[in-house]
Amino acid sequence: MQENQAETLTDKFKLNVDNYEGPLDLLLDLAKAQKVDLMQISIVQLADQYISYVNEIKDNLERAADFLVMAAWLAYLKSRLLLPDNSDDDFSAIQMAEKLKLQLRKLESIRLLSDRLMSKPKLGFDVFMRSMREGIKPISKSEYNISLYELIKSYADFKKKQNFSSISIGKLPVYTMEEAIKAITQMFDKIMDWCEIKTVIPNNFLKTKKLKKTGLSGTFAASLELVREGKLSIKQDKIFENIFIKTRN
Q1: Residue 193: domain span
Q2: Are both 106 and 187 inside the same structural domain?
Q3: Could you give the 3-state DSSP secondary structure of residue 154?
Q4: Does residue 115 sit within a domain?
């Protein structure tokens, strides 16, 4: 008689584990057995029910690992709920119990929605796709209505894209004001007397007409900046005549 009872409990455990995804599913069914709202269930009573269930299937512990972990946690939560609440403790048993109730309510909602979803007609079982129509298949034929001008313009645009080539123009060297200030500063000992501004332009900016322009512009801007700082003097006797510079004593 005892052997038959043990076999019945083992079979019951195997059947239930196959139907449950985890300990929370079992907790939800046990909580529903209290026949009250999930937010009003007794965690202490739920822990007793769960531990009693695990005790019945303790002969198959290899498959009940997750269930045993939940049983240990529920036993700990029950003991904390029965003891007076300690405000200095970081662990609040009441808050954990409320969170467990909330998780059970979420799981119940998921179950209800999944049942509704699975009850809908299924493609291939209750609903079938419409097969291809037999007989003569329609043949679509495109017709274009354009003018001669539009045709020629489209051809010209196409040839223009084919013959398009990018042009890369190299950047000419520029004699910046910063470079000119550095060069003039290094020549302070050579321009103690008045000298023409062109004499301080670097030789590489005197090779062509365009380079001479940028060399003169950079040197003139640098000279004005040094005059503003009080390091250089500049003069021009008449309009359009040569410009002279020298260092200030």
Answers
A1: 177-247
A2: no
A3: helix
A4: yes
